[in-house]
Design brief:
292 residues, alpha+beta, two-stranded antiparallel sheet, 28% helix
Length: 292
């Protein structure tokens, strides 16, 4: 039995014991985007065809009203295309108060509330261990890339510094995700990936049966753990070897428009902002040298 088949079997058992109690309080927006079809097509007898590609994009802190509020700033394609050609929910809400990364991502991926899917915070107190734990840390697995673990001396995310081991997996996610259900529905034929700068963003989206890749600031590469595979596919190795992040060396993040045209353009420098070393707190922000 392959690792993928084992994960699908495991997730089927998870679903049978826990998913039956799941309160589906929200519809996954991306599902609606992909399966929604004109009423006229259905009435005309045109049978709906399953989508070949489903892409779920989750953006931290992108409040629901912002895409339309700043629609005049959007270029062609991207969010503008989704607003014009997709299904836009203007009155959608979440039913949890702790709006941290893993909480929201897991809720979108599963359709469940945090009290059901288990990801109640980026860190929580594990009474059996007597300490705070990071949401996706897993001592039973390891990273495939040596030296890619969080560098406690330079990492700015305090929640990632909480982890005591380098291993990452969805073992703490208590219910199945949309990707998991798709894997079961297709008997493992569907290809499911979660990709993010943050490890918890990728792992939550990939679910139990997909494959997660996240960016390691320590190694400058996209990495994964032994939960998903024993070695990288050749295409991942080739992508990492190409050194794509180096393209940003000695460049800057600049504003797209004149600063005076932004709503808060005159508030770029405030005492309460964090002045990250080498990054500063005002535009333009320097990406620094390639070895920085």
């Amino acid at each position: 039995m392959t690792t993928r088949q084992q994960k699908i079997g495991l997730n089927t058992r998870v679903r049978s014991t826990i998913f039956g109690h799941l309160e589906m309080t929200a519809l996954l927006v991306i599902v609606a985007l992909c399966i929604a079809r004109p009423i006229s097509a259905v009435e005309g007898g045109d049978p709906p065809q399953p989508p070949r590609l489903i892409v779920q994009i989750t953006v931290d802190q992108l409040r629901g009203d912002l895409p339309t509020r700043y629609a005049d700033r959007l270029g062609e394609g991207g969010l503008k295309w989704l607003l014009e050609h997709g299904v836009h929910y203007a009155n959608a809400h979440f039913d949890h108060a702790n709006t941290e990364t893993i909480v929201g991502h897991a809720s979108l991926a599963t359709g469940a509330e945090p009290r059901v899917h288990g990801m109640v915070a980026n860190v929580w107190l594990d009474r059996s261990l007597g300490r705070l734990v990071y949401n996706i840390e897993d001592p039973t697995v390891h990273l495939l890339t040596a030296g890619a673990d969080v560098d406690g001396a330079t990492e700015i995310d305090p929640t990632q510094r909480t982890a005591k081991v380098e291993g990452r997996s969805p073992s703490a996610l208590l219910v199945s995700t949309f990707g998991d259900e798709l894997a079961i529905r297709t008997a493992g034929r569907a290809k499911i990936f979660g990709v993010s700068v943050k490890d918890r963003g990728a792992v939550s989206m990939a679910g139990h049966t997909g494959t997660a890749y996240w960016f390691s600031k320590a190694s400058g590469e996209f990495v994964t753990s032994s939960y998903y595979m024993d070695r990288y596919p050749d295409w991942v190795t080739a992508w990492n070897a190409a050194g794509h992040p180096q393209r940003f060396a000695d460049t800057e993040w600049t504003l797209l428009h004149d600063q005076a045209t932004y709503q808060y353009g005159d508030a770029d420098d405030k005492a309460w902002e964090t002045a990250l070393p080498g990054w500063g707190r005002v535009f333009p922000h320097s990406y620094g040298p390639s070895d920085g």
